[in-house]
Amino acid sequence: MHPDKAILKNAWPYQQDKLNLPVASLEMALPFYETILGFRVVSRSEAPQPSAVLTRDGIQIGLAENGGDPQQDGCFFEVDDVEKLFAEVKATGFEKVRPDFKQQTYGNVAWKVLFVVAPDELCYSFGERVIV
């Protein structure tokens, strides 16, 4: 573990499947996940459509050219330190990141949240549990 890196602890898809997130072009999408979000590709496939499985901190997501609408999908990631993740993303030069460190409540859990919209238009939320 790198001390300057946040640790992803869990992931929940906005739609049904975090291993089948829609992208228009896998080749165009992958550099963002590797360079900006720190994922690495663990497998790729061309059938039934171009797709890849990526991992970071043992958490896996998948991207696929499946014809889905990326604006309607993405994931919520639980992270150990959302401010560390924000600094990590900003350090790459990526500007389309929006911190909202105000407390937000989902169910009975309070979160400090960071929003990232990928160039492929998938939206990601990174949340750190807030102890109240």
UniProtKB/TrEMBL annotation:
Location of the VOC domain: 15-129
InterPro entries xrefs: Glyas_Bleomycin-R_OHBP_Dase, Glyas_Fos-R_dOase_dom, VOC_core
Domain of life: Bacteria
Pfam families in UniProt: Glyoxalase
Protein name per Swiss-Prot or TrEMBL: VOC domain-containing protein
The organism of origin for this protein: Spirosoma fluviale
